[in-house]
């Protein structure tokens, strides 16, 4: 239903722009109408990167970010820091295009569909704290930009832990323990550790 609504709205808006351009182009005079061009792939990727930063994707899915030292060498490659709640313990997934441990089996459109529906390629639901209902409110253009950015990332091989059932204790869950090995690889030592 939402896709149909978006497509219909896009068609109506597109037809309106064409009508305005056509009506302004006729007659004598020097009427010049600027028509917005479609973004280039580089612009779409840059927009997608911006959206993943302001949307908080980097916060959970990039190791070290929640510890104050984002590891940009493993951007969006997932975390071993669990999020514990009534659903059990979940982990921020690897969003890089690694075919075995990340989104490498997804097309850009399947990434858009997953964000929009809250369901992974295998049909399993995205679990909290993933705020997919918020992200599904983005425009199709913004969702496409996020997908373009994700597929442009260098693949990082990192299988995050599987979801744990409610009541199962996680080795590292969001009570901010010391970072697990994967998350802590490139973190500086804790304050005061150098003096020992």
Task: Describe how the helices and strands are arranged.
Blueprint: H1 2-25, H2 41-54, H3 57-61, E1 82-85, E2 88-91, H4 108-117, H5 132-135, H6 140-152, H7 181-184
Antiparallel strand pairs: 1-2
Helix pairs in contact: 2-6, 4-6
Attribute tags:
196 residues; disordered N terminus; mainly alpha; two-stranded antiparallel ribbon; single chain; disordered C terminus
Q: How many domains in all?
A: 2
Please provide the ordered H/E string of secondary-structure elements.
HHHEEHHHH
Task: Give the beta-strand count.
Answer: 2
Distance between the termini: 62 Å
Unreliable sequence segments: 1-28, 191-196
Query: What kind of oligomer do you see?
Result: single chain
Order the strands across the largest sheet as they lie in space: 1-2
Shape: globular
Computed structural class:
mainly alpha
Largest sheet: 2 strands, antiparallel
Beta-strand percent range: under 5%
Mean pLDDT: 80
Helix content: 25-40%
**How many H/I helices?**
7
Report Rg: 21 Å
Describe this structure in words.
- With 196 residues, the protein is mainly α.
- The chain has two domains: 36 residues, no CATH class; 148 residues, no CATH class.
- 38% of the residues lie in helices and 4% in strands.
- Strands 1-2 form a two-stranded antiparallel sheet.
- A hairpin with a 2-residue loop joins strand 1 and strand 2.
- Helix 2 crosses helix 6 and helix 4 packs across helix 6.
- The longest helix is centred in the first third of the chain and has 24 residues.
- The chain starts with a helix and ends in a 12-residue tail after the last helix.
């Amino acid at each position: 239903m939402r896709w149909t609504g978006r497509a219909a709205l896009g068609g109506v808006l597109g037809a309106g722009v064409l009508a305005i351009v056509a009506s302004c182009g006729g007659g004598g005079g020097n009427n010049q109408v600027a028509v917005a061009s479609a973004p280039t792939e580089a612009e779409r990727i840059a927009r997608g990167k911006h959206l993943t930063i302001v949307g908080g994707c980097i916060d959970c899915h990039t190791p070290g970010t929640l510890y104050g030292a984002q590891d940009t060498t493993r951007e969006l490659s997932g975390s071993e820091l669990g999020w514990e709640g009534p659903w059990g313990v979940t982990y921020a997934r690897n969003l890089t295009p690694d075919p075995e441990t990340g989104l490498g089996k997804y097309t850009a459109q399947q990434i858009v569909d997953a964000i929009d529906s809250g369901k992974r390629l295998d049909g399993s639901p995205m679990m909290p704290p993933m705020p997919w209902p918020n992200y599904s409110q983005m425009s199709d253009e913004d969702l496409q930009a996020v997908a373009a950015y994700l597929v442009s990332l260098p693949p990082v091989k990192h299988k995050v832990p599987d979801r744990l059932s409610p009541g199962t204790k996680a080795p590292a869950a969001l009570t901010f323990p010391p970072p697990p090995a994967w998350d802590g690889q490139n973190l500086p030592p804790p304050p005061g550790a150098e003096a020992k």
